[in-house]
């Protein structure tokens, strides 16, 4: 993505030395000139995305270390019609101890936990209770997830109810119609209102990129959502026909870079949907390192939304430790 804007004074410290939370993105007034300047060269983006997985070879103990890092960035998710308090409880147990202790010990790793547990609103209180005594936040999908076709007032109430129930992170969906009709002011106002309703809860803004028609729209919507105060921008609900892809990730991370260079705010990135293999988790980590640098390689600025990824990562770690794959029942998901 190319834009011509640049921040005039670079921030003094570019790389964090600890995992202290970055300053929250307060947003800025809607800058329509900047939004309209966005251009995306689709074939260049696709070429670059295709080379990303080949740019770094991460093997052996380095691969194990990267996979452990990936686990700490997972928003461990269940968003199914047949979710019950029981399977959310089991998911929370997994979130507390995502990898078998014998494998962790063999890797010389400390205790490990995932980035968050992500559920539908009605199961927030179950997850909050199950995670008591940990620092793992509960994230709630909201605003008429996944289609976002509920009345606006109802969307605000849903956010407020999830925050009230203890969700510390809210994954909202945008109205795709605002993007498809070029109504950037409406998108800005909507996301700004969602951010106000979130209060202290961090807001991840789901673009549902596959439904935005073009990569340019993805870049424009990313910018508008950040201007409106998104703490994270997120690719997909996991329910679109195509979910997180590297070309979309490239456009969104470059929008994050442009926004940071102009405003000084670090906005996080969350690819979600269809990410199921350890190999793909490595690809996403490589994208983050290449496009945004080490500052974005931790769970304050990077999450992977996934329901099935952890099983494969645990399987690969077991292989690294034991030299053979464990049977599926040795690493149950829930
Ligand atoms: O936000 C997370 C996604 O809904 C998870 O999608 P997934 O089930 O394809 O991993």
UniProtKB/TrEMBL annotation:
Pfam families cross-referenced by the UniProt entry: DeoC
Pathway: Carbohydrate degradation; 2-deoxy-D-ribose 1-phosphate degradation; D-glyceraldehyde 3-phosphate and acetaldehyde from 2-deoxy-alpha-D-ribose 1-phosphate: step 2/2
Chain positions covered by the region annotation Disordered: 1-24
GO cellular component: cytoplasm
Enzyme Commission code: 4.1.2.4
Keywords: Lyase, Schiff base
Skewed-composition ranges (Basic and acidic residues): 1-10
Catalytic activity from the UniProt record: 2-deoxy-D-ribose 5-phosphate = D-glyceraldehyde 3-phosphate + acetaldehyde
One example of a Gene Ontology biological process annotation: deoxyribonucleotide catabolic process
MF-aspect GO terms: deoxyribose-phosphate aldolase activity
NCBIfam families per record: deoC (TIGR00126)
Family: Belongs to the DeoC/FbaB aldolase family. DeoC type 2 subfamily.
Descriptive protein name: Deoxyribose-phosphate aldolase
Phylogenetic lineage: Bacteria, Bacillati, Chloroflexota, Ktedonobacteria, Ktedonobacterales
């Amino acid at each position: 993505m190319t834009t011509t804007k640049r921040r005039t004074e670079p921030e003094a410290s570019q790389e964090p030395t600890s995992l202290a939370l970055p300053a929250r993105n307060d947003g800025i007034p809607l800058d329509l000139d900047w939004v309209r300047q966005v251009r995306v060269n689709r074939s260049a983006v696709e070429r670059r995305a295709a080379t990303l997985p080949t740019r770094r070879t991460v093997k052996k103990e380095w691969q194990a270390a990267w996979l452990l890092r990936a686990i700490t960035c997972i928003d461990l998710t269940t968003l199914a019609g047949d979710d019950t308090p029981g399977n959310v409880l089991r998911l929370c147990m997994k979130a507390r101890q995502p990898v078998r202790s014998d494998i962790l010990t063999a890797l010389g790793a400390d205790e490990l936990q995932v980035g968050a547990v992500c559920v539908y609103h009605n199961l927030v209180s179950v997850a909050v209770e199950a995670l008591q005594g940990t620092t793992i936040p509960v994230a709630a999908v909201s605003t008429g997830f996944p289609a976002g076709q509920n009345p606006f007032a109802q969307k605000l109430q849903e956010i407020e109810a999830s925050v009230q129930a203890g969700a510390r992170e809210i994954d909202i969906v945008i109205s795709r119609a605002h993007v498809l009709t070029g109504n950037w002011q409406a998108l800005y106002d909507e996301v700004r209102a969602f951010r106000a309703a979130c209060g202290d809860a961090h807001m991840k803004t789901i673009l549902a990129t596959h439904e935005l028609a073009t990569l340019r729209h993805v870049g424009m919507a990313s910018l508008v959502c950040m201007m409106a105060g998104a703490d994270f921008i997120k690719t997909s609900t996991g329910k679109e026909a195509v979910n997180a892809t590297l070309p979309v990730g490239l456009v969104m991370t470059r929008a994050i870079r442009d926004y940071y260079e102009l405003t000084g705010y670090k906005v996080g990135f969350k690819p979600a949907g269809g990410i199921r293999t350890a190999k793909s988790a490595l690809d996403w980590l490589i994208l983050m390192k290449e496009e945004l640098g080490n500052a974005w390689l931790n769970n304050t600025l990077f999450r992977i939304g996934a329901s099935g990824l952890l099983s494969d990562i645990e399987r690969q770690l077991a292989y690294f430790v034991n030299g053979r794959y464990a049977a599926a029942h040795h690493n149950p998901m829930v």
